[in-house]
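Researcher: Here's the sequence for the chain we discussed earlier.
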Amino acid sequence: MKKRTVQRLLAAALTLTMLGGCLGGCGKKENKEGEDGKITITVQTWNPGEGEMMDQIIAEFEKENPDIKINNVYLPYSDHMEKLKIDLASGQAADIYGMQTGAPLKEFRDFEMDLTDYADKTWGDGWEEQYLDFCNDQLDEDGKYYAMPLGMSYAGFAWADVNFLKKYGLEVPGSLDELKKCAEVLRQNNEFPLAIGAKEAWINIDTWMSIANDINAEKLYSAIEGETSFTDEELVQSFQIWQSLFQDGVFQDGALGVSVYNDIADMFREEGSIAMELDGSWVCGEYLNPDPDRQKIFNSEDSDHRAFLIDWNNDGKTCPVTATVDVSLCINKNSRHPDEAWKFIDFMLNEGQDIMINDYLGFFPVKKDMELEVKGMSENGMSNLEFIQKEANDNIAGYREMAYPELKQAIGDNLATLALGDITPEKAAEAVEAASKSQER
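Model: Thanks. This is the structure I predict for it:
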């Protein structure tokens, strides 16, 4: 069985400690009190990113906490994770960092501070009850919380430019058969069919899980937990359908060579040059994106975009969605200023979350009592927001982020190999099952 990434990181960190005797403090000048007496807290995450929304949140926090300065470091997800691995091992990491639930959160456990006492002291007994049960299910580790939920998101959606489809006499497809016909017409007119940024493993896994959930959600999650074999007939079928999307031209040529961000996302949301893309609930935030190019294409008076779900196995029932705490916030166990870091997390989960959701729709709520009162949404935007929220309330198959890194890696690798046509669905299922059997749970 492969060693966990964090075990390697910890070994590197301990080596550095022995050599330099300074793990958790060496060189962290940015966390010292400055000449103005302020303590700087560095926050690193991929989402929320940078720009107007974070500027507003930070300005309001610093106004309430004049002794603290926030240094916001935005990095794309892959870069964020790679930097964390290096910086945590060397003792140079940010005080607060964003983390996905599931496998990533468990992988970095050796560097995550237990935040339970902070939450108990700040919010009182029973504070967990204010959050959606789904959040607690993902973050509660035998009564301990190593991360706090910042926002929810939902995967499994596709998005269509309705006006683009109308140019070719097409409607938004509802089933795989309809999707194939739609893709054929678009290809005949030298247009992209359904676009996927298959260079990024997360969208491949999201899409495959959507397919598998449509066939049999109970079996999918049972297999992830090691209780059902991935060689089960219905799970093999999910790999067959996934591979067929490449072989039958439903996805664009060269899909494995392009990313969602920012290749496919820009084509759909900024250029308006493709008819459909695969992505998640977060696309709805484009209606509030202040970028004039995005507003012109995505939210003009005449624009008409639609979130939709696909019936992947043509059984007359569209697929369910998956849910996740999109970003959770951790405090670096070696932070010099955990109290100040916690103050910012507390702010982000309250005043900051209201700004993120109701002013910018950066996420969906994690709190049971939070009213979704998004400001400035167009009629088209509100229509999609209501559709997504309805699916989130009534049509969730289960979690999006699995907790098992080696299994997740094996699924991602085999999905890419299936896309290339270098393996059969049956062999892919066998390979994933072998990884599942060796996965520590």
